[in-house]
Amino acid sequence: MSTKTRIPIHVKVSTQSILHKVDFNNLPFGKHHTDHILVCEYKDGQWQDVHIKPYQDITLDPAAKIFHYGQSVFEGMKAYKDKKGDIWLFRPFENQKRLNISAERLAMPALPQAYFMDGLCELLKLEKDWIPQTDGSSLYVRPFMFASGAGFHASPADKYLFVIACSPSGPYFSGKIKVLIEEKYARAANGGVGFAKAGGNYAAQFFPTHLAKERGYEQVIWTDDNTHQYIEEAGAMNIFVRINDTLITSPTSDRILDGVTRKSIIDLAKYKGIHTEVRRFTIDELIKASANGSLKEIFGAGTAAVISPISGFGYKGKDYALPELENSYADRFKKMITDIQYNRTEDKFGWRYKVTE
Ligand code: COI
Hints:
This protein is an alpha+beta fold. It is built from 7 helices and 18 strands. It has helices at residues 65-69, 92-105, 113-126, 199-214, 260-271, 283-292, 329-341, and strands spanning 9-11, 36-43, 46-54, 72-74, 77-81, 87-90, 138-147, 160-169, 177-181, 219-223, 231-234, 237-243, 246-249, 276-278, 295-302, 306-315, 318-321, 352-354. The strands form 2 sheets. Strands 1, 2, 3, 4, 5, 6, 7, 8 and 18 form a 9-stranded mixed β-sheet that branches. It has a 6-stranded mixed β-barrel with strand order 9-10-11-12-15-16, surrounded by 4 helices. A hairpin with a 7-residue loop joins strand 10 (219-223) and strand 11. The mean pLDDT is 96. It binds 2-OXO-4-methylpentanoic acid.
């Protein structure tokens, strides 16, 4: 048991590391797993001790409610290693808070902050050799919680598992992406779970994204479920557009995820004096701006992809290309954010969190 933490953490170290099997010069996103996972069970109305143990399968009752009613929420985070070998997280308390916001919406128990933070830091210290040091690579961290309690009654489970698994990862996308503006399907609706990081929100994207891919697009731009006129998100990311020099992003709502990268970009833009508008915007506005040349950029923002520039979009059978820009906002924000994340620059906002002593 660790002596430094405030909660009981039991650590069983793997005797068979698979670290040597991974090519760190050629890291796909999210494919490899590290040697250990963290598991904590909720039962009898409380969270039990935290266990860090060798990476292994999780055995569940076939009636576990995750399988039937989809009670499952997750977070996406990254751990970075700087030149000196110190380990950093980026705004981890935002993820910890959001996990509980998501959990509440799905009638799941809140996880106390110490279980999340102390458990995560202990796991990262154990997995420190798994954190890539090359630019563009990091240790993707996936905390998740799901209903392990069993029963076919459609009601919340009485048992849950909180798990953290990690994956040494390279970039999520290899280059610019071409997107299709969705006219029929929606990822979220008012009063629904769109703002939560619920597994089902992502499952609901797979079929429309598959249809878009068949038509030669890589991702779907989500529009509002009511009119399909307002632009809301880009694939599994928040969306930003630049019209002339104004940066625009949709406001968070029942339907839009309160992304950590999204809010960091808004703060950085304000700090840099970039005129920023957090407001609803329509497809019409984009098409008019594209026609008169004022539409300069569209990019997605999220933890996994950081910032993903969009090369063009399709709508109602027509393609609209975006210009190639020098010194784009996408490149500038990506540099500003990753410089903070990898401890390459001063952190004026206090976003960096040191894991190692
Ligand atoms: C992330 O950006 O970390 C996410 O959670 C999106 C995921 C679908 C890769």
